[in-house]
Amino acid sequence: MSSTKTKMLIGGTVLIAAVAWLGISGVRAGSAYYLDVDKFMTDASCRSEQVRLCGKVAEKDLVIDTSGTAARFRLEGASHSVPVNYRGVLPDLFKAGCEVVACGRMDDKGTFQAEQLLTKCASKYVPKTDASRRAK
Amino acid sequence: MSSAQLGTLSILLAFLAAMVGVLVAVAYGRRRAGALINAGRWSLGLTAGLFTIALIVLTVAMLGDEFGIEYVRKYSDRALPTAYKIAAVWAGREGSFLLWAWMLAAMSWLTAWTIRKEPSVQQAAVCGILSAVCAAFAGLMLFGSDPFAASPALPAGMTMAEVDGAGLNPLLWHPAMIAHPPFLFAGYAAFTIPFALMMGALIARREDNDWVFRVRRWTLRAWSLLTVGIFLGSWWAYVVLGWGGYWGWDPVENSSLLPWLPATAVLHSMIMQQRRGMLRVSNMLLVAVTFLLCLTAAFITRGGLIDSPHAFAASGTGWFFLGVIAAGIVFVAAVAAWRWRLLRQSPPLTRLVSTEGGFIAGNALLTIIAATILAGIFWPLISPVLANVPIVGALLFRDPGTVTTQPVTLNKNFYNAIVVPMALCLTALMALGPLLSSVTAAGFPKRRLILGAVGAILGLVMSLFVMLPDVAWHTIEANWLVVAAAVIVGFAAFTIFDDIVRTLLRPLFQGNGAAGVWRAFRANSRRFSAMLAHAGMAMIVIGVAGSSLADKGTDLLLKSGQSEKAGRYTVCLDSFREVPHTGYASVEASTSVSTAGGKKFSMKPERRFYDKYQKQPSSVVALRSGLGENLYMMLTGYSSDGSIAAIKVLVHPLVTWIWIGSILMALAASLCALHRPTKRDEKEQPDAGLKATATAKPDKKSKSQAMAAEVRS
Q1: In sequence order, what DSSP letters do the residues of B547-572 get, joined into one string?
Q2: Which one of A13, A16, A34, A45 makes the best mutation probe of the B interface by having the most chain B beta carbons within 10 Å?
Q3: What integer best gives the mean pLDDT of chain B?
Q4: Size of interface A-B (CB pairs under 8 A)
Q5: pTM for the whole structure
Q6: For domain A32-124, which CATH number applies: 2.40.50.140, 3.30.565.10, 3.10.580.10, 1.10.150.130?
């Protein structure tokens, strides 16, 4: 009886220790700061980190590769902007003026190298300007 | 009366009917009158009927293009095909709540009827709890998410006949998206039933275990519905979102997985309670947590609290769900405290290496995975708090100071680091678990261990054989996990196969013929469904492990008539043109693909431009599925003069196994839910169980025999 309890206690401790170790290394490996462009550009401390950068794709300077698998653009916030270089399949909703979240980090030359681009999910997206659309 | 008024009125009346149901249950607590039980049941029936009316009204409005209703105007238009008009009923927040509420009320009513023979206190409590949840949903629709809200007034000079809706979002134009929400919401709704049954039994102070099978049966039903829902969602993500994956650890995907995990735990460990009254506390907690996580899923996807690409839209809905979840936690804590003595009556665990021990370990692992995912979803909110905790902050963050002001999110590396090893442990437990029931004092049954080992070695050899030629081992850590998965699955597959074949073939060798086999099948249907579910899970593990080996794909730039190699395939662009359709125009790249083996087939990736969503072109992936690998082709772009098409070609090994495995699991669970407990199950098992527990220590063999007998029965 007590030996079962002891064994469970030992097993539980081992499990908790393993989970704690996995958890700490997992958090360290998977952390990404979620920032808007203004904050990212004004705060030097987060420049070297892996971040999720949210902002608007600038109307001009948007270059999409013929293959559709690369793009260069400026991501802009309210007051700052940052050049972004992305390689990979572009999301369908990606276009000038749309809000995106770019995951990646800044390189030495000051270009943000994005590994992943996320656009707004359409199914849950409630249009802000319903009235303007109705008028059409 | 307009249809919108009729709809709103039915929801209002449903709210009142459900409130009456709650009051009736409370009244029964004070004065035990039989009429009150009937009243409670009828009020649930009335609620279900009224929600049915509301749902029919909304569907008819969708089909009839009644754009006076804002919800119809937002999610449908005149040109939408009929099937998608019906799907538009649950395309948005308000409609999906109505669907959820309707399913919940219908299932509640069914439950109220099926428990007529149970003690009346339990009946009253169950009906009261179900009515309360129904009332909450009706209230949500009345005071925040009204599916029948009117459209804004028309501009001057415009008549209703000229108005057209905004149309269904192109991403939802897919068969999987017609079926995904109903299955998911049916699963969420169905998890309310085991919760109510469990709480009802506690309130009624039931000391026997005869009611437990109902909880387990509803858990199985809900679990299989949710499994199908998750499968459809991930299949949709695979074929529609066009990023070449089926699971991205996105908050929305994660939230659907959340209730699935504790539900998986409880549908196993409930067996222990059914047979012996064990694990009462953890089962109660798991059932409650499953229910609360269903609400949490709605809170995450519809609440807008977590900033994700999915949840930009904020609404008051979040606060509502938070309130209901808080109320649920308080309720569960109160009932648990009130009935603590009953809950503590569970017989203690006597041996660690036993079926019970296995279930406890499984509960622990599944809980850890669920907690990981929950923490991952809420990490942007948790991290600033944790960063302030002295040691923890320094351990977790490189720079805790900045985390207190800037939210941190966790990407797939976090989930993979924790969930993958845990899931592998779980799969190993799944492989060993069924053997636990026949563990004797001498240890595991040798023959099956040897068979399992043969399977494991086969898995090892096969995985190495497949991967060795083209994998750089020292660079990719994940490949060792694939080998581990193959070993575990090999073990599981051989033991499962052995179990099924031996049970079915034994009657043949005993000379009982086909009838004997059928009898053996019938007698063991519950165990077989468990084995099938495990086989399904093993297939999913194979699929996940295999698809993790996929490469980054090949980008082709092709002119008409040109062909190029992509791995083992040669892709030739036959034609590239624009094709008009109703509702959309599509740019199609017709390709013919030939394999090294000489097989030829055509594939047609396209890019669609929907009339209502001109600015949102959507790719339609061309997919050729096979058991071995899927060929996945996307039209990623084209030159402005239309002469060159850019095509991405991806080869995904074994993804189909995930789909087959999911369906197999869901089918197995529904098969298991069909199993009716016989008189023998109900009467003999608890006795046998108690005796076995009482005598377990001095005589281990008799216990394992008793357990083996139970498993067979």
Answers
A1: HTT----EEEEEETT-EEEETTEEEE
A2: A34
A3: 85
A4: 172
A5: 0.88
A6: 2.40.50.140
